[in-house]
Design a protein that fits this description.
The chain has 413 residues and is of the alpha+beta class. Helix content is 45%, strand content 13%. It has one domain: Cytochrome P450 (Cytochrome p450, Orthogonal Bundle). Helix 13 packs across helix 17 (356-373). The structure holds protoporphyrin IX containing FE (HEM).
């Protein structure tokens, strides 16, 4: 492959093109970029303007830490401006903000995301995954994505936010349209209209009668005497519903797929369940549910030998950094017992994922229960993906299994 054009280190394949991700992240290409052109220019294509690609872990860390010179607000934090939401809504989403505005929003949301509040979710997560397993266990087969992985984070987040049970179907349908990178803009705008007319009623009822849920906490959260406005609370409701759904879904489905592709690793977890928290970290590294995050240079600057111009987009390929051999020896080996898997799956610095502890908890509990209740799991057909430059998106992971212990869970969602 040719890695230089007119003397400029260049990515030989368009990384903005979803087709490049048809078989999953292009790990061979990432390895070559890391080795030959760790700071490479991706020329403009059909899907995005030109952008710089960073593929080494050690080049990404300083960019992530330096929000003054690498902005999330100027052109958003995805390759394509706006990312998954229509552009007009992104100014309300705090992963597309810079300080000091970002810090105010994050600080207020963080007050409702305490370790105690997260740990209190464990029982609900366990109950939810067991109810989902109850629905498929007699069949001896299911689709991990459709039957388990889509539902789990949506239900867990909706429960945490305090969305009424009778509204769940429409909330999930909205979340699915908004997080679909291929859904038409008009459809997304229509959904945002519906969300905007739905949420004020729910907010009004929580103002009158606060409960223990996250929505009430967001409404009453206070930082330096300030509270969030109604529009801001609505934006955070949507951000939290979306932030936790696609990502956790693909980590769970992709993680189970990895365990099926490396059955000796699945067996190791069955034999040593104490390894599950470590397996979660290896799965997060291996799957990297969000391939990239982007920043925009706020001034002319240098990364390594390369001159980056103000307003150039710099894309941090987390999927590549997570397999950087400088951080994880033999990175192409999936190993649930890997010593301290190092990954940037949740980002780092100012924008590090607010929900990372919740996601880790969901994945741990989901794995514990899946392995406990389903035995002799094997793939019953090909796993399929939806190519995306943004999400490591699983469409289907069909499995067959033998039922393990029956659960006496009868209370329905
Ligand atoms: C495996 C699951 C998850 C992954 C891989 C993931 C990944 C990420 C990444 C990479 C970022 C950093 C964005 C940046 O650098 O600009 C981020 C931010 C964020 N995530 Fe997550 N996330 C996950 C689960 C969740 C959950 C469960 C929630 C909440 C319910 C959540 C809410 C957020 C929010 C609100 C931000 C913005 C933080 C900020 O800009 O300060 N995420 N996530």
């Amino acid at each position: 492959m040719k890695f230089h054009v007119d003397g400029i280190p260049t990515c030989p394949v368009d990384l903005a093109n979803a087709a490049t991700f048809a078989d999953g992240p292009p790990h061979q290409l990432f390895a070559e970029l890391r080795e030959h052109v760790p700071v490479a220019w991706n020329p403009p294509g059909v899907d995005a303007d030109g952008f710089w690609c960073l593929t080494r872990f050690d080049d990404i860390v300083p960019v992530n830490k330096d929000w003054q010179r690498f902005s999330s607000a100027r052109k958003g934090s995805f390759l394509t401006e706006g990312g998954i939401l229509p552009k007009e809504f992104t100014s309300l989403i705090f992963n597309m903000m810079d300080p000091p505005v970002h810090d105010r929003h994050r600080g207020l949301v963080q007050t409702a995301f305490t370790p105690k509040a997260i740990n209190e979710r464990e029982q609900d997560i366990r109950r939810t995954i067991n109810l989902l397993i109850d629905d498929v266990i007699e069949r001896g087969e299911c689709d991990v994505v459709r039957d388990l992985a889509i539902e789990l984070p949506l239900i867990v987040t909706a429960n945490m936010l305090g969305a009424p049970v009778e509204d769940r179907k429409k909330l999930f349908a909205w979340a699915n349209v908004l997080s679909d990178t291929t859904a038409p803009r008009e459809e997304k705008l229509a959904v945002m209209g519906q969300v905007s007319s739905y949420l004020p009623q729910l907010i009004a009822s929580r103002r009158q009668q606060p409960t223990e849920d996250l929505l009430s906490r967001l409404l009453h959260a206070e930082l330096n005497g300030e509270r969030l406005s109604e529009v801001e609370v609505m934006a955070h409701f949507v951000q939290l519903m979306l932030g936790g759904s696609e990502t956790t879904r693909n980590a769970y489905a992709g993680g189970l797929l990895a365990l099926l592709e490396y059955p000796e690793q699945m067996q190791r977890l069955r034999d040593e369940p104490a390894l599950i928290p470590n397996a979660v970290e290896e799965i997060l590294r291996w799957v990297t549910p969000i391939h990239h995050q982007a920043r925009t240079a706020t001034c002319d600057l240098q990364i390594g030998d390369m001159s980056i111009a103000e307003n150039d987009k710099v894309v941090m390929w987390y999927a590549a950094a997570n397999r950087d051999p400088a951080q994880n020896p033999d990175p192409g080996r999936f190993d649930v017992a890997r010593v301290k898997p190092k990954h940037l799956t949740f980002g780092m610095g100012l924008h590090v994922c607010v929900g990372n502890q919740l996601a880790r908890l969901e994945l741990r509990v989901a794995l514990e229960e899946t392995l406990r209740r389903l035995t002799k799991i094997e793939l019953s057909g090909p796993a399929t993906r939806k190519p995306s430059n943004c999400f490591n998106w699983m469409l289907s992971v069909p499995i067959r299994f033998e039922p393990g212990p029956r659960e006496g869970v009868t209370e329905r969602i």
